[in-house]
Every structure is written in C-alpha cells, then in structure tokens.
Amino acid sequence: SQIFLDGAFVSRDDAKVSVFDHGLLYGDGIFEGIRSYDGNVFRLQQHIRRLYDSAKSIALEIPYTQEEMTDLVCETLRRNELSSAYIRLVVTRGSGDLGLSPTNCHGARVFIIAEQLAMFSAALYEQGIHAVTAATRRNRSDSLNPKIKSLNYLNNILIKMEALNAGASEAIVLNSEGYVVEGSGENIFVVRDGVLTTPPAYLGALEGITRQAVIELAGELGYVVKQEPFTQHDVYVADEVFLTGTAAEIVPVISVDRRTIGNGAPGSITKRIHEAFTQIVRTDGVR
Ligand code: PLP
C-alpha cells in the first residue's frame, strides 16, 4: 500500500517516523478517522474542518490548506485503488528534542493511511452488542477538551479495556457529574417512546460526524431528536440504545450492565436509521 508521509507517497515498509516525533513522545498531535464508500468519501469536508479546528485549538500549524488536504486524502485512495476504505489522517507536532516545548519541533508531520476496513462481523450488527458502564470518568473541566481529536487516547483505551474485561464489546462513559457522555470511541443514542436522545457535546463528548448525520436522518424520518443530559437509569429503561461512529457506523446495544435493553434485540428505529444511513454514505461527501 501507498502511504502519504511528509509530502511523498511511500510504501508501507518505508512509512516510518522518528522516535523523536512529539506525537509519539507526548501524544502531541491530532487525527481523523474517515471512510469512503464506493468512491465517495463520506462527509470529508466535515472531517477536514474538524481536523483544522483541532489543530487551531492546540496551536498546531498544518502545512497544507484545507483544499490541499482534501486532495491528498482523495489521492491516497486513488493510489491504493481503494473505493471503500478506512482512512487515517494524522498530524503530529513533528520531530524535535526531548522536552515538552513545541518550539523544539521542526514542523508538523502529516501522514495518511488508507486501508481496506476490517469491519465488525455482520452477526454483531444483527444481534447487537453488550455494553457496560465504565468506572473511568470523563472530566469535562479537563483542560484538554474532548472536542479536540487529539492523539491522547489512553483514557479511551482504558475504557475499552474495562469493556473487554467485563466480557462486553463496549463501555459507556459517564462524566464526573454522572451524566452519560459517549462510548470509548462512539457517540450514544437512547430511544424511548419513539423519541431519540443523545447527550449534548458540552457534557464532554466528541461532536461525532456520524452523530450529526443520525440527528439529521432521524429528523427527516419524522422522529423527535433531543440533545439533553441523561443518566445510567435512562439507558437501562430505554427501548433501544445504539452507538455511532465512523468505523462502527450504527451499532445496536442489547444490554448494558446486564440489564436487557428493550426486548434484547436491535430495535426497529435503530434498524430504520441504519438503513437510511447506508443510503447516504455513497452520495453525501467528496468523490
Ligand atoms: N467519540 C470519540 C471519542 C471518538 O473518537 C469518535 C470517533 O471518531 C466518535 C465519538 C465518533 O465520531 P465520528 O462519528 O465523527 O467518527
């Protein structure tokens, strides 16, 4: 495969970065996970915008314009002859001396990987997944705003480990006030009496692009969608629960902390929204 790295396309074996890269040493960098479906890069403009917002927020200067970055993503797909792929776009502070100061670094490093997606099994989408509530909390007064898609994912990894340790596939994160925030790397929706609710991003969630697409689709399908705080209790008593993310798409959750959600099978509204989502991913984006 051909990987874009520091201004050139290189082979997978040659795609190596220095141990002095501050992205590696300190998690000083940002990223995006993007998907293409049959040649359409789903909502690429929104991913690029979020990347540049993350960069701005951490005072990281990306050495390309947004238009150039859009072209680079499309070029990476073309070079790999991939029409349906998962794309990982990473910008680090670059290599520098040891020490936290970004002034040590010699300029941002950009790399783009496009790979065939190792999707979740079809059975998982048909049956739904089991989830638990994570003990690891999200603290929304952290100076590192969760809206920044930074390379500091250790908290998310610890949350994923909690899920796996409990024999579940995913974990639901609460913030320090006990409100439901999101999954380890997905946003969350609950459905009760036909009304969809997702936590407002200000509780400490990433503003997911799939989340936004689902809010729009559900509205078009005639459902009421609320962005309001809710607690663990509201998750347990929901008729349906699902998670959304670029890699995961829309995943039904059938149990949380061993409480069966609804009748223990993916809900009808979740299915309708997933169906509608599969309709737009091939047209809504950049070719
Ligand atoms: N929340 C977190 C912490 C994430 O890392 C992601 C993945 O990007 C999401 C939510 C879902 O966002 P999106 O739908 O933009 O992929």
Could you characterize the architecture of this molecule?
A hairpin with a 2-residue loop joins β1 and β2 (8-11). It is globular, with a radius of gyration of 19 Å. The protein is of the alpha+beta class. It has two domains: 2-115, D-amino Acid Aminotransferase, Chain A, domain 1, CATH 3.30.470.10; 123-286, D-amino Acid Aminotransferase, subunit A, domain 2 (D-amino Acid Aminotransferase, Chain A, domain 2), CATH 3.20.10. The longest helix has 14 residues, at 44-57. Helix content is 28%, strand content 28%. The strands form two sheets. Strands 7, 8, 9, 10, 11, 12, 13, 14 and 15 form a nine-stranded mixed sheet that branches. Strands 2-1-6-5-3-4-16 form a seven-stranded antiparallel sheet. It has helices at residues 22-26, 44-57, 66-79, 122-127, 154-165, 209-220, 232-236, 268-280; strands at 2-5, 8-11, 29-37, 40-42, 85-92, 109-115, 129-133, 170-174, 180-183, 187-192, 195-198, 224-227, 240-245, 249-256, 259-260, 285-286. The structure holds pyridoxal-5'-phosphate. Pyridoxal-5'-phosphate binds at residues 33, 156, 182, 185-187, 206, 208-211, 244-246. This is Branched-chain-amino-acid aminotransferase. GO terms for molecular function: branched-chain-amino-acid transaminase activity. Homodimer. Keywords: Amino-acid biosynthesis, Aminotransferase, Branched-chain amino acid biosynthesis, Pyridoxal phosphate, Transferase.
